[in-house]
Design a protein that fits this description.
Layout (H helix, E strand, L loop, with lengths): L4 E3 L8 E5 L1 H10 L7 E5 L4 E11 L3 E11 L6 E7 L5 H12 L3 E5 L10 H21 L7 E2 L5 H10 L2 E5 L5 E2 L10 E6 L7 H9 L3 E4 L7 H15 L5
Parallel strand pairs: 1-3, 6-7, 6-11, 7-8, 9-11, 9-12, 10-12
Antiparallel strand pairs: 2-5, 3-4, 4-5
Length: 245
């Protein structure tokens, strides 16, 4: 089994003996119950990882780690961004969790016109914070050194701007004329995929996104829920563009 990953500040990402404490130290000692000799990885979540082993455990929230190697992963190519319409209830966190585990690089919450959920004021700020926390926790669980960025809530016009600047842009749609599995994908650059709400992408949004260069694409013969479509689409893209090679 691969070594567990813990979020750490840049001062710990160096060779030699470092101390992990605070919430991450508490999780390592009291939840993961790590002991001397076990391997760990410390990361900033931005691509750099410090690889070492536990040398000492003190109390319930402090351990020493002998770091033997520090390395930084290059940015993955192509980068995959999923624009996720706001789902109902906790399905948003489910979508973020599974997309993070799959390998998505950027997640953009989208205020689609047909979305039932609305992020406004303090509630919206809390919901965004929960998505970002979910991405961090899922990134650690998935043993990623580079956690996905969860962007601010985007309007449809902001999404259109993202699509226009992408090297490949698509809108997942059950009536899409061609399958995502057969689409020509770039080897580098930015791939942006749009996942609509449970009520579907509105016609005016499809027109707006189409004008920005995004084609409607279907995933398969069945209709997926908004909380799972992004993960399924990301898996197709990751396998076809070589990042899962």
């Amino acid at each position: 089994m691969s070594a567990p990953v813990f979020l750490a500040g840049p001062e710990l990402l160096r060779t030699g003996t470092v101390v992990l404490d605070g919430p991450e130290g508490r999780h390592a000692v009291s939840v993961r119950r790590l002991r001397p000799g076990e391997e760990v990885v410390l990361t900033d979540g931005a691509g750099t990882g410090a690889f070492g082993s536990v040398t000492a455990v003190e109390g319930k929230d402090r351990l020493e780690v002998a770091v033997g190697e520090v390395r930084t992963e290059p940015e993955p190519q192509p980068r995959i961004t999923v624009v996720q319409a706001l789902p109902k209830g906790d399905r948003g966190e489910l979508a973020v969790e599974t997309m993070t585990e799959t390998g998505v690089d950027v997640i953009v919450p989208w205020a689609a016109s047909r979305a039932v959920t609305r992020w406004k004021g303090e509630r919206g700020a809390k919901s965004l914070a929960k998505w970002r926390s979910t991405a961090r926790q899922a990134g650690k669980q998935a043993r990623r050194l580079r956690f996905p960025q969860v962007a601010d809530l985007a309007s449809s016009r902001r999404v259109a701007a993202l699509l226009e600047s992408a090297d490949f842009a698509g809108v997942l749609h059950e009536e899409g004329g061609s399958p995502l599995a057969a689409a020509g994908l770039p080897a580098e650059g930015e791939i942006v995929l749009v996942v609509g709400p449970e009520g579907g992408v509105a016609p005016e949004e499809l027109e707006l996104f189409g004008g920005a260069g995004a084609r409607p694409l279907r995933l398969g013969p069945s209709v997926l829920r908004t909380s799972t479509a992004g993960t399924a689409a990301a898996a197709v893209v990751l396998a076809r563009c070589g990042r899962w090679g």
